[in-house]
Amino acid sequence: MTLAITNSRPPDPRELPAPSGLMCSLLAMPERTAIVDVSPSFSWIVNSNENGDLQRAYELEVADKASGLVIWNSSKVTSDQSVAVAYAGPPLSRRTGYSWRVRTWNARGLMSAWSPAQGFTTGGERVAGADRYTTARYPVVQTAVTPVHVVWLGAGHVLLDFGRDAFAGLDITLDLPVPSTISIHLGEALTASGCIDRKPGGSIRCQAADVSFGAGKQTVRVPLTPNDGRLMSDGIGPVMPFRYVEIENLPSESAFVSSVQLVAHYPFDDRAAEFSSSNAELNAVWELCRYTMKATSFGGVFVDGDRERLPYEADAYINQLGYYYCDREFTLSRYSHEYLIQHPTWPTEWILHSVLIAWTDYLYTGDSKSIACFYDDLKAKSLIALARPDGLIASSAATPENLKAIYRDRIEDIVDWPIVERDGYDFRPVNTVVNAFYYRALLLMAKIADALGNGEDAMNFREQAARVFDAFNAALFDPGTGLYVDGEGACHSSLHANMCAAAFELVPDARMQSVAAFIRGKGMACSVYGAQYLLEACYAANMDGYALDLLTARDERSWMNMIDGLGATMTTEAWSGNVKPNQDWNHAWGAAPANIIPRFVMGIEPVEPGYRSVRIRPRVTGLTSASIKTPTIRGAIRAEFVASTDHVTLTVELPANMTAEIWLPAGGASHARLVVDGAVVQGVRDGRYVVAYGIGSGKHALERRIASPS
Q1: pLDDT digits (tens, 9 = 90+) for 213-237
Q2: Which domains does the chain have, with CATH numbers?
């Protein structure tokens, strides 16, 4: 017997709140596109008013949208799974509308109301030979933004400031007494006199257009120069990055009516993430990087900025991590990754980044479809085929067969970009940075293989990683200096060799002190891309205060210089034009703080895929307070700490169906204890921290206390 989905019955107050945040194949708004997957997956946020609550069962229904008839009911399934639940009904028809809903049971057996039904539509047949994407994505949208400042520079000459740089089109409304040709300039930078810089240099944009207006009130879309083959999403047309508009030769001030910046971006929830702290510079850097996530999504795929508008793996990885902490949105990251699997770029380390991206996708979504689909490709991109007997690799060892397996005709080590940011790196066939990334890729491939049930592969990857660890520390470490050299046979030790070794946990404890001191002494001797791994290395070496210094610095090589020195509102391609004369001002690979601040300053990272469990380990050094709201596929996590020399308190709010391990700094005390919700618990001491495990959902207050040895 078939039943129709209905939401007409009002919820029973004795029921649990209905699930919310429904996602079909990772899409929160699947009605905006077509679901490519013939067997979609379903995710939802479990809601409960009870602390420590877990989902114990669920029931899911899928119905034909036109008739409302249920075509599949899962029945009550005893499971805590609330992410990536696979459709298991009869085959779905192509180009057909469906809807689905879910209800849950909690730890005490209480049943929730049904969620509101969410609609989705299936796509058509795949074209033979087409790219093997598994991920549907939204069309890019446009948001109308009005100027925040209108400044008259002289008679008939007005400057519009839209507040932030954006990839956009421009509408201008004028009311003219007679038909006229009006001069309009769009740009990203101003001169000292407050006009648009019409010769800004590099890839900083400025464009002029003479636009014809008729008599009376009229709105005109300003024509933009075609993009010379650079990527733009379908349906929107050319966009360019600009913040400022100048309009000249207006007959009077009253002739100007209004103007709208038509900002192109992937659908984005500006309320999904929040951060504030006692450090104003850190707050400004966070907002710069958060906005960069939204503003650089204009093409519907992660790209490297305006100059090329091309996807690159290293850019995509940093972009992916930041995006996850700024919006509950996963399809843009996955689509970009799957595109790059089949259209890779040339650097050796970029190929290895595909493995990092794949694992991160699974860790944050809990959805294994992509890693399953591209598993063989990921094995090839681990570059394990290039290994010599001791485990280390050299890109020069790649054969035509190896290259074909990774869709390339050549690969070449890059270390950092531009070239001047390599800290004098001595390139050798066996490259230390490449092998550090290789080691990380092997460990993650073992985890991917485990997730897919490929135990033999997982064991092989772990064994190979162990060989690499030993060979790396034997062949690439100089006992005389206590540092890692740039490659086999090299005498030079760069920041990059040592920060990558530290970031990827290749440095034994006995060697960390000398490596950390060297890293600290080098400063920001790397690019904005390299800053991702420099900061990870700082936290791995317990240099929390130094990492904060780097995040909030005001010298030329800093994010605050992007804001105050350059006047950029998105992260830039390089620290300055002195480093890269052709840089652009809209490059997400410079936005490492978008993930570093929530992952390390606030310490929020998933432990189990899909945030089934989470670690919260705030690094409070240098801050007296900080608070965050960060999105996850299971719902938002909120955390706030207040810290002083001898006291730390932390409040957290976790969504239902999630557990946490919470780490508070022990402050050097050998007998630190935790107070959790008013009760003293014997926290587990782990290095510099005292840890409470098994913290359930809901609101909790934690405090570190110093207890007497007795």
Answers
A1: 999 999 999 998 766 556 677 778 8
A2: 20-121 (2.60.40.10), 141-265 (2.60.120.260), 274-601 (1.50.10.10), 610-706 (2.60.420.10)
